[in-house]
Amino acid sequence: MKIHLHQTNFTIADFDSARDYLFKIFEEKKEGLHLFPEMFLTGYPLQDICLHKQFIDRYLETVSEINKFLKKRKEKGITCLIGGLDYTMDQEGLPLQIRNVAFKAEAGSELRPIYTKRLLPNYDIFDEEKYYHPGDECAIEKINGKNIAIMICEDMWPSSMHPIDPGLDLKIYAEKKNIKVDLVVNLSASPWHIGKDQKRIKRGSEISKLLHAPFIYVNKVGGEDEILFDGGSFVVAGDNVIDGLKRFAPDYKEIEIPLFSEEKAKSNKPYEMTNTWESLFKAELKPGTPPTLNEWTDKECEEALLALRFGIQEYAKKCGFKKFLVALSGGMDSALVLTIVRIILEEGQEVEAIYMPGLYSATMSYELSFELCKNLGIRLTSLPIKFFHSAIRNSYKENFKESMEGLADENIQSRMRGALLYAHSNQKNSMVLNTSNKSEIAVGYSTLYGDSVGAISVLGDIYKSNVFTLAKYINKKFENIIPEGIITRPPSAELREGQEDSQSLPPYERLDAMLEGMLSYRLSTKDLIEKGFSEEEVNKVYGLYTRSEFKRFQFCPIIKLNAKSFGFGYRVPICKKRY
User: What is the rounded CA–CA span in Å between residue 326 and residue 337?
Assistant: First the structure.
């Protein structure tokens, strides 16, 4: 039997595109089993829009259109397994229950839900228990004479957070019914983070050996705000990886059901349960006294670049932007963002850089910014703020009868830059890219409505230590495109005379390790002190970290690269007592 893997990328709620894609399969008469991602018909994640009446009506209308189309078709030998939603409505047309299902689509009949997702993830970025009703039955469907075991995404990730293991249940069910499973398929919408692809293949291999059948994993593609879905669909038989599809791109592949070796299955390691909490929220620190953050390898840098390219482009295209705008400071973060955007530019897209020097900006900052733009082939516009700054100072003193000093004076400079940046963004219909890194966001070292502005954050899930690592990797790959002076100069916000980050924060090699321990939920202040960090530094960093929730709550979307990140999956109260 031919298997067709459809690794698709449609905007959430683009019902017409999903419907037309499905129609085309029957019109082209491609015989065999067609596999689609989880919630192919709607997109994922839906959050509250799955409860909106307008969304529900439009979705049900699409399902009706598909059913009318299928009932008129006469093609034999074409079967589609499609991810979608199955609504149970009350008398007023409001949802009583919503199920995340696999539909079976064949000519001559309507869409038929044959399996309901059993494990509903409810951690980190997931909140499916809020919306969906879990299934309670296994599904092994006879298709073209083959026994196909069906799973949906999280069903392949049993853990201590779930009461059942759908993989083991399938094994028990097949043995009880005396069914030989010919193929296991998983329709998935699995968010990506660095290292996730190998973790999926390992789990697929374990399930393949458990059920003594090949395992096919079909994943969606798409940048959904800050969450990335990379595709990376694959086929395994035991430990043998048969085939794989592209990453961060739509793809299609036609294969034959691969053979499965019983001998290899018996000789390999036993089936294991993954504790999801443990695997996601683990502080990956390099041993030492004190420990440090693990530096990204070249492979991880390349993977991060690939993901950032995808995330920026997806956000821009789905929001309708073709122009990008970056505020250069002469520092590492803005230089890296501008470089990444220049590398990923596609035909018809533009990027513009603006340098906005203030009273305390060093001459070197302009020189390095100019050199970077020359290397990148980008025009640099200089828009000084020192005159605006002086005018605001004078106006403040005249009206409030006191001088604007300290933090207020520092922050107004950043906010002026943000206002000017967005004025130009409005004028040119360009998308502002935020340049703050994860370390700054963690300790609140980012002025609200100032350097925190932007449509999306490029570096918000990259600690400062790895910002430098990624910059050095880019220089190695693109022949020193970032001036060395930007990489080696001490980080500074240049908001007061002689300012450097080290005056306010511990060195980044210590700061980042402490922050990763805190963010993973695995290390308390006591744990960090016992690992060799000074009590004074730990308490200072913890105080900055906990007092900055109001800033993070108002921050722009952050492209997610790591298992645990700020943004969509990080939800804590703003108002709380330090604990």
Answer: 8
Query: Token match 């790895």: residue?
Result: 466
CA 212 – CA 2 distance, rounded (Å):
20
| Cα gap 311→164, rounded to integer Å | 34
**Which residues are annotated as catalytic?**
38, 117, 153
Single-letter amino acid, residue 230: D
Neighbouring residues of 572: CB distance < 8 A, sequence distance ≥ 6: 549
Of 420, 284, 299, the C-alpha closest to 356 is 420
What is the pTM for the complete model shown?
0.93
- Summarised one tens digit per residue, pLDDT across range 350-396 is 999 999 999 888 899 999 999 999 999 999 999 999 999 999 999 99
Q: Give me the domains of the chain, ranges plus CATH numbers.
A: 2-275 (3.60.110.10), 297-502 (3.40.50.620)
Q: How many CB atoms lie within 10 A of CB 493?
A: 21
What 238-242 contacts at long range (C-beta under 8 Å, 24+ apart), as own/partner pairs, is: 238/205, 238/208, 238/209, 238/264, 238/265, 238/268, 239/205, 239/209, 239/264, 239/268, 240/264, 241/201, 241/205, 242/214
Q: With bands split at pLDDT 50, 70 and 90, how would you rate the model's confidence at 522?
A: confident
Calpha distance 330→333 (Å, rounded): 9
The rounded distance, in Å, linking the Cα atoms of 35 and 255 is 11
Section 237-246 average pLDDT: 92
Start-to-end CA distance of the chain, whole Å, equals: 60
Element (H, E) at 176: helix 166-177
**Rounded-to-10 torsion of CA 117, 120, 121, 127:** 120
* CA–CA separation, 343 and 334 (whole Å): 14
CB 361 within 8 A of CB 371: no
- 51: exposed, middle or buried (Cβ count in 10 Å: 0-12, 13-18, 19+): middle
Which three-class secondary structure state does DSSP give residue 315?
Answer: helix
Asked if the bond preceding 483 is cis, omega within 30° of 0, the reply is no
pLDDT above 50 for 267: no
Residue range 454-464, pLDDT digits in tens: 999 999 999 99
Residue 161: per-residue pLDDT:
83
* 141-184 tens-digit pLDDT: 999 999 999 999 999 998 888 889 999 999 999 999 999 999 99
